[in-house]
Structures are given as C-alpha cells and as structure tokens.
Write a structure and sequence with these properties.
By secondary structure, the chain is α/β, with parallel strands linked by helices. 26% of the residues lie in helices and 18% in strands.
C-alpha cells in the first residue's frame, strides 16, 4: 500500500507501516525528527494531491483545536477557523482510506466532521497512560484494542515545559504512542 502520514514529524506511524512492508511516507512542514529519507517536507494538502495515495492518516496540528488550549482561544478565532478548515480539507482529499487524528476538541462541534468515529486511549494499546484521542475514519474500521493495561497516568499532561532531549513540550506531546501506531499498521493494512 502507498500511504501518507500527514503532519507527522516523529516518524512513529510511518515506520510502523514501513516495518510491515508498505511504501509509506511521513510529511510535515519541517524535516523528520529521525532524519528519514521517507519524509516529505511541505504542506500536507499539496503533498496529498501530488500522488494517488492508497491511504492517508492525518494528524492536524491541535494547538487551536484541542480543549486543552481553550483558554488561549480568545482573540484567535481566525486561527481556529483556519485550523478547522485545514482539518476539513484533509478529510475531503480524494484518497480512498483516510484517518484523521486529534485530541478531544472543537472538531466535533465546530467543524463539518461531526463526532469522531471512535475515541481511543493509550492504555488500550499497551501504554499505562491516558490521552483521549479522537479518530475520524473514512474506509478504515475502528481500531480494536490490542493490549489493555493497568495504569491511568496523565503523562502527557505533566510534560515539563521547555526543551527536553532536543524537543519542545508540544513536540513531545504530539508523538503517537508506539502501540497505537502498531495497531494502525496491523489492523488497517489488511
């Protein structure tokens, strides 16, 4: 399968698919954190239009979309409208299989996407943490939990500010959990 992982700089989801033999590329406005040659720098919409992809998984930036940032929305209404329009544009790409991932936020109430197809948690996929993640799915089936574990630690919420291991807090928080990336690649590639 030829796939695009839009708005992903970590390469976690891309590599999970590549490890299973698929031709998959990540994409972001900046180079990949892992220096991979399978990363395309550029606008996700333009990259999505550049080829006939079999599938795409988009991770639109959540800064103006998540409820965690709601206190910062005032005075940034246009930025939020632009973020919603970007997520909707990803969703309406001419690609047969699309997954759009974002935390709980305004996409389900202020966009044309409506309610997500499903909401998953890291602890359903082998990570003893909480981070409710919404998935809007077109053509893909909902993910089935692969390894339900104990522990409900809000690690992402407690990420320290500043640069740690060369990454900002926002970058660290946006990395897809390996168990979720593996479940996507295993369950959606059949």
């Amino acid at each position: 399968m030829l796939g695009l992982i839009g708005c992903e700089r970590s390469g976690v989801v891309r590599q999970a698919w590549r490890d299973r033999g698929h031709e998959v590329y990540s994409n972001d406005l900046v180079p990949a954190d892992d220096g991979s040659p399978y990363h395309i720098v550029g606008d996700a919409i333009e990259v999505a239009r550049s080829r006939r992809w079999d599938f795409a998984i988009f991770h639109p930036p959540c800064t103006r979309l998540t409820v965690a940032g709601a206190r910062w929305f005032r005075g940034r209404e246009q930025e939020q409208a632009d973020a919603i329009a970007f997520a909707e544009a990803c969703w309406w790409m001419d690609i047969p299989l699309i997954a759009l991932e974002n935390p709980i936020g305004v996409l389900s109430t202020r966009s044309k996407l409506g309610k997500p197809t499903q909401i998953i948690q890291p602890w359903q996929f082998g990570h003893g943490e909480v981070k409710a993640t919404c998935l809007w799915l077109k053509g893909f089936k909902p993910l089935v939990p692969t390894n339900i574990v104990d522990g409900r630690v809000p690690r992402v919420h407690f990420e320290p500010p500043g640069i740690v291991n060369g990454m900002t807090r926002q970058q660290r928080r946006s990395i897809t959990y390996q168990g979720i990336a593996d479940a996507m690649a295993e369950q959606w590639s059949v």
